[in-house]
Amino acid sequence: MTKAHLAPTLRALILGAALSTGFAAFAQAEAITVYTSYEEDELNAFLQRMKADLPDLEVNVLRLSTGDLQARILAESANPQHDVIWGWAVTSMIDPRIAAMIEPYSPANIDRVPARFRDPESRWFAVTGYMAAFCVNNEVLAAKGLPMPASWADLLNPVYKDQIVMPNPASSGTGYLQVASLLQMMGEEKGWEFLRALDGNMAQYIKSGSRPCNNASQGEYAIGASFALRAIKNIAEGYPITMVIPAEGAGNELEANALMAASQHKDAAKRFLDWTLSDAAVEEYYAWKEIVTITGGAMPQNFLDAGLPQDIGSVMWDMDFAWSAANRDRVLAQWQAEFDK
Fold first, then answer.
1. Residues 319, 307: Cα–Cα separation, whole Å
2. Of 208-217, 289-298, 311-320, which has the strongest mean pLDDT?
3. Which entry of 3, 151, 187, 279 is 20 to 30 Å from 328 by CA?
4. Which of 73-82, 111-120, 193-202 is least confident?
5. Quick check: 172 and 67 in contact, CB under 8 A?
């Protein structure tokens, strides 16, 4: 090789190395960490859709139940390890300790989210949600000669003793919304009296919002207090259950998204948050969630077939999310002292 040929070759090698380094830095900048409490099956579906739309964005996900995720975020508050909160309970998001870690951001298409479903200071916006429902095993009822419950009040019937399971509210967002909604519906004095009476029929408190439904679906118990989407999915999979939305009204929770102020990858994090309001994301939400705050989709027929009304607002209890957030620690402390034994 002559000297004349060597110079261009070296220049090409140096340029290639520089470009490679630049691309590596770009790739690193396009990796974010997301904390979420979405259920694993819906989370996987959302991530697959996101990856198809943003193939150059690497999303590392930590999925924990609502209460466990709150404990994790607070434990890391001095040095947050994530860039985005995705699909997490509003009652946790509005905790002042959490709100202090969030940076206001208004994603593209934020106007698709009605004002009542987003923070006035643009710290979070809620796109999905879930509501309480009972999963009732038809075969267990028939075998034991038990009646079909229609309400929370019905669950106090002594015939259901040791046939009911529900989530532990200290770890499960579904469990907390159930307890909080009962206290709001009945008032605290009567609400705690009801929970004590219900405890007499309770077989087990489970550290998951979906597992009570799964346990009832598999015939381990007659009734699993859970959430509507899990009941709908299990019915579609052929389990012999009926979804019952409590006659008093279904406690419910919104799931919100936010940008962490400490994020070192804010451009990538904002791209992700923008995607959560895209047409593709909304289409996926409607396939998986009983509550979607964004217009542009239609409730699937299998949701309606399972018993979810077209107007879900007609069966939802009007939750006071601010009360749920402000009283969370106190309510959970009392619940654990009385029932978590």
1. 22
2. 208-217
3. 151
4. 111-120
5. yes
Nearest to 33 by CA among 59, 51, 66: 59
**Which token pair is 150?**
């229609």
**What distances in angstroms separate CA 104 from CA 100, 125, 257, one per listed residue?**
10, 10, 11
How far is the CA of 128 from the CAs of 31, 89, 191, in angstroms? 24, 10, 27
CB atoms within 10 A of CB 116: 8
pLDDT tens, residue by residue, 100-120: 999 999 999 999 999 989 999
H-run or E-run covering 203:
strand 202-206
Rounded Cα gap, residues 220 and 162, in angstroms: 11
Q: Which amino acid is at 196?
A: R
Q: Are 290 and 304 in contact (CB under 8 A)?
A: no
CB 293 within 8 A of CB 126: yes
User: What letter would DSSP give residue 249?
Assistant: -
Contact assessment for residue 132 and residue 156, using Cβ atoms and an 8 Å cutoff: no
Compute the mean pLDDT over every residue in the chain, rounded to the nearest whole number. 90
- DSSP letters, 14-80, are HHHHHHHHHHHHHHHHTEEEEEE---HHHHHHHHHHHHHH-TT-EEEEEE--HHHHHHHHHHTTTS-
Q: Are 297 and 283 in contact (CB under 8 A)?
A: yes
pLDDT of res. 298 = 85
Domains of the chain, CATH where assigned = 11-129+254-298 (3.40.190.10), 130-252+305-339 (3.40.190.10)
Write down the H helix ranges in 131-239.
138-144, 173-186, 188-199, 211-217, 228-236
How far apart are the C-alpha atoms of 17 and 19, rounded to whole Å?
A: 5
Q: pLDDT value at position 21?
A: 37
